[in-house]
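Quick start: read one record
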Amino acid sequence: MDTNADEQSQAVVHAWETALANHDAEALLACYAPDATLESPVAAHLLGGPGIVRGHDELRRFLTRVVARTPDERQYHREGFFTDGHRATWEYPRRTPDGQQMDFVEVMEIVDGLIQSHRVYW
């Protein structure tokens, strides 16, 4: 495993999580490569279409809507994530220490310290 790639992968996931917690669409966008893709049922719901967002212009539109609709008290429970330096994966389990949440999995492909592809599975 490439130690530098692993550190970059961890750094971008932590930056993404911080930006999401702060409801900061521009900081979220900065985590993505200019030609990144994001696939999510939420994208289909908020933007219509197939749920695939491509490039910074579409990502900005999507992320702005996501942070505008996310309540301040919204919490997500997970216990760490796995990365091999090129892919980061984690799950949000149904049962948490504080009750239940929606269960889903996120996968990010990371290239040169930026998210190249982001997929959300429900």
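Residues 37 and 58 are 9 Å apart (CA to CA).
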